[in-house]
Amino acid sequence: MDKELFRHQIEVAAKEKKAALVIKHAKVMDVFNQEWLDADVAVENGQIVGIGEYEGEQELDAAGQMLVPGFIDGHVHIESSMVTPAEFSKAVVPRGVTTVVTDPHEIANVSGITGIRFMLEEARKAALNIYFMLPSCVPAVSFERSGAVLKAKDLRPLYQEKEVLGLAEVMDYVGVEQAEEDMLQKLLDAQNENKLIDGHLAGLTDRLINVYRTASVQTDHEVTTAGEALERVKRGMYVMLREGSVAKNEKNVLPAVNEKNARRFFFCTDDKHLDDLMAEGSIDEQVRMSKKKG
Known about the structure:
The chain is an alpha/beta fold. The chain has helices at about 5-15, 85-90, 105-125, 150-155, 175, 180-190, 205-215, 225-235, 250-255, 275-280, 285-290, and strands at about 20-30, 35-45, 45-50, 55-60, 65, 70-75, 95-100, 130-135, 165-170, 195-200, 220, 240, 265-270.
């Protein structure tokens, strides 16, 4: 953001200028205090700049309807839907999903960096906030045949893309445990760029969970039981409650969630086919499932 735009945002927040859009008379969800507010919401340049009483160039009367933050899918492979990011957005935005964090390792396994850059460009056309984690294991293991091989040096320039949040699910257990040269460099590059590192700890022992945490892996979406979830949480990890087209783990993991540790859990679909997205929904369906479980 340049200085003049920054100044303008502040002037709108201070009510010195009208906002581009004001949603009037809304019942706003305060997620921090966990309560409802009766307020207007001022939006300028796509950013909420004020909650209270505001005037706007355009005003929409919510007439007491509830205004809540959009859902976030914390880990998804858009390629599993078999459509481009822009078309994918048409399936999930009506379901209340406004942000996804995608790992394009499926297209990367076929076409490497070219495939990742294609996804980045296509994502910018979508009516959806799409952030990226860089595929950490292309191919998944050294003896697998793939259309591309991505080394640390190949991924490094992509960290400069504003949509890139970190290194995607690290699934090469042997490479991490044995601190293999290129895997070690990928992990260090992510740390040196102050980026996040996602894990893939399917069935790992406590010893290997410790190895992954030492390697700065912060999340796991491969948890299938409440016990596995608690082992990760006690080591300071975040656990994703997954409900996709094939892997359906939310019901079995939910018993691990309680008032003390709830903020260590979040939702993801991982891989969900387009017909399932249209029939069942996305994160909205997972919220409904959680609500039914109390």
